[in-house]
Amino acid sequence: MQQVLDVLLDNACKYAPRGQLRVGVAATGRNIVAVTVADSGPGVRSADLGRLSERFFRGGISADRGAPNPPGTGLGLAIAAALAENMGGTLRLSQTPGGGLTATVEIPGVPNPESTREGRTA
What we know:
Blueprint: H1 2-15, E1 21-28, E2 32-39, H2 76-86, E3 90-95, E4 101-108, H3 113-116
Antiparallel strand pairs: 1-2, 2-4, 3-4
Helix pairs in contact: 1-2
């Protein structure tokens, strides 16, 4: 999870160096932990959004935001997606309302032994 967060935070800082960055953690559903990193950078073109986690793919900056693409290899989000999958989770990418990219990693949480004793569930 540390490497996934490193990739997501690095991307957010790279694409929104003077923008806003929001990080959130929430428990969703049964035993699922969601970590969200959202930035207020230039965002990506809608047509590129579904391909951002493909190896070596580098999406274009949203045209109305006009910022140049920072250097990179196009591997970071592919690695983050593969790591999330290896943990039994997923990486979802979406547009941040108002501009930017939101990355959400959902992974199974660690069961709380106290909550599962005597038939109780988390």
